From TrEMBL:
PANTHER family: THIAMINE-PHOSPHATE PYROPHOSPHORYLASE (PTHR20857), THIAMINE-PHOSPHATE SYNTHASE (PTHR20857:SF15). Condenses 4-methyl-5-(beta-hydroxyethyl)thiazole monophosphate (THZ-P) and 2-methyl-4-amino-5-hydroxymethyl pyrimidine pyrophosphate (HMP-PP) to form thiamine monophosphate (TMP). Keywords: Magnesium, Metal-binding, Thiamine biosynthesis, Transferase. One of its GO terms (molecular function) is magnesium ion binding. This is Thiamine-phosphate synthase. The gene is thiE. Binds 1 Mg(2+) ion per subunit. CDD domains: TMP_TenI.
Amino acid sequence: MKDAKLRGLYAITDSKLLADGRLLPYAEAALAGGARLLQYRDKSDDDRRRLREAQALRDLCERHGAQLIINDDAELAARLGAGLHLGQDDGSLSAARALLGRRAIIGATCHARLELAEEAVAQGASYVAFGRFFDSNTKPGAPAATPAMLEQARQRFSLPIVVIGGVTLDNSPDLIARGASLVAVVHALFAAESPREVERRARAFSELFVGG
């Protein structure tokens, strides 16, 4: 069942974008619009607040039949029974797999390098994430991935492939056609005036996968 969830919109939170009480209503709106994965990304050291917010997000995900992914905190993911996303400098994927168990969803950032994806697959990743594909507010200095590289990845790997970095409603269809299983979106989803607008955008992203 978990693999069936790894297709569609992958919503990623941003602590600055979703400050001032926006995190939970905006996240719920994204889930109501069809987001399949929701990544909680907060790099602060306020552990009590992060636990409280992550618990609330987990409950929202369960209500909407989606999966919560914790960014770069294997212990928090284990505590909540959530998934985990690791960057290249965020620790060992194989150690995280041992901690979280074989059923947990664990993803890995692979930038624009197929060899990093090979390593992630060998260490037990559930999905591999490539990016940035376009100019991105979140990752302005990240190396650029290309649609051609995405096609190569689709031919080489059977795991779901996530694309991130400047992904919008306009450029998502081409990435999906070239092999993206999930489109990871931050600003194009959450830089909105209201939860209603977030839900509208989420629904539009989700509809790109209908029938695919």
